[in-house]
Amino acid sequence: MKRSVRSIQAAGTRRTARTAARTAVAVLALSPLALVQACGGGGQDGDPGDGQGSDQVAAVIKGLDNPFFQTMRDGIQEQAEADGLTAEIQAAQDITDTTGQAERLSALSQQDFGCFIVNPISGNNLVQGLAPVSAQDIPVVNIDQPVDADAAAAAEVDIATYVGTDNVDAGRLGGEHMVDVLDGEGTVAIIGGIAGDQTSNDRIAGFTEAAEGDLDLLPVVAADWDRQEALTRATDLLNANPDLAGFFAANDDMGLGIARAVANAGKTGEVKVISVDGNPEALDAVEAGDLEATVAQYPYTVGQLGVQACEALMNGEDVPETVVSPVAVVSADVAGEAKEAFPAPFEDFDNPFGS
Asked: What is the DSSP secondary structure assignment for residue 207, as one 8-state letter?
């Protein structure tokens, strides 16, 4: 069923008005990056609640040092509020905090929640924490970063549904756009996230599939999702390859670091930089001409869909095994439209939870 995020937000506003007396979602930052909570979690005075009967949702996401996950948090919070649910959201300190993220999930698993939303840092770092959740038949919604299927099966963890971008498709869109802007020729460098990370690998695979045969692709260089590291890596690549025509970055933060290296070399506009995410700073950079394009994903929408999936599951409804969130290439000609619609997509998409 077709339903835009704008219509979801409008419907949410109406639901919020009807349920304001019984709904509260508040944010408490316990450290600048490490922990964000929306109200909920646990019965009154610490007494256990009623398991699946609870209308509380727990969410464990990646670090809020990255604006992508800040926006995801906002989508979870606002959709929960709109649906008359309470949500507790906890975040890792940063993109490498696998242990801390797992500890937050383990603590939440001892409390009363009707559904869990998880966005793991790696494919298996949250699996053990999910085992007691599944043992209680509490539904688990996996968003953004897939839980490793083999690890989940070994721990008897049941993932009710996965909600996220098709990262291969996102990379493919970036590759197709790069081929177009370079007229099918030139040398392009690829800068990925943490070596071995599945999200990074998928985006690079899609880009490579679309670009190889037309463009000369250099070996992938890892920059750990970090802007400064990407700047350093891109500077080295520019020095070693004076004829370099473009860069593909597996996320916007690295793309912005690359754009700085290109600017330092006096080659803005000459060396094309395409990244993935569609964060506000990247949209600004596209509009300014510092980035050629960003392949926008919609973490706000991923968060919204995660909550909608939880609501359906808590109501005993069937949900799809996979829910694909939208992606779109944002180049300078549509950057203004994308910014106006942010954090929602600027195009409609098929939402299986639409009414």
From this structure: H
Q: What is the pTM of this model?
A: 0.76
- Other C-beta atoms closer than 10 Å to the C-beta of 339 total 16
- Confidence (pLDDT) at 87: 96
- Supply 147's token pair: 């839980």
Which pLDDT does position 304 carry in this prediction?
Answer: 97
Q: How far apart are CA 291 and CA 166, in angstroms?
A: 22
Contact 163, 319 (CB under 8 A): no
pLDDT of amino acid 67? 87
pLDDT of residue 62: 96
Are 6 and 344 contacting, i.e. CB atoms less than 8 angstroms apart?
yes
Q: Per DSSP, what are the bridge partners of residue 244? A: 187
Domains within the chain, CATH numbers bracketed: 5-165+299-326 (3.40.50.2300), 167-297 (3.40.50.2300)
Q: Which residues 6+ apart lie within 8 Å of 130 measured at CB? A: 105, 109, 116, 118, 140, 147, 152, 155, 157
Per-residue model confidence as pLDDT tens digits over 21-67: 333 333 333 333 333 333 333 333 333 333 444 789 999 999 998 88
Q: Please, are residues 190 and 258 in contact by the beta-carbon 8 Å criterion? A: no
How many CA atoms, within 13 angstroms, populate the side-chain half-sphere of residue 11? 14
Which residues of the chain fall below pLDDT 70? 1-53, 355
Helix (H, G, I), strand (E, B) or coil at 32: coil
Residue 354: the pLDDT is 80
Residue type (1 letter), 175: G
Could you write out the DSSP letters of every residue in 158-183? ---EEEE--HHHHHHHHHHHHHHHTT
Q: Are 208 and 190 in contact (CB under 8 A)?
A: yes
Q: Which two tokens stand for residue 25?
A: 């979602």
pLDDT attached to residue 51: 40
Which residues fall within 8 angstroms of residue 13, CB to CB, at 6 or more apart?
82
For 233, 256, 295, 346, the CA distances from 261, given in Å and listed in that order, are: 9, 9, 20, 30
Instruction: Take residue 307 and report the two structure tokens written for it.
Output: 């909550």
Q: Are 97 and 103 in contact (CB under 8 A)?
A: no
| 145 residue type, one letter | Q
Residues, the chain: 355
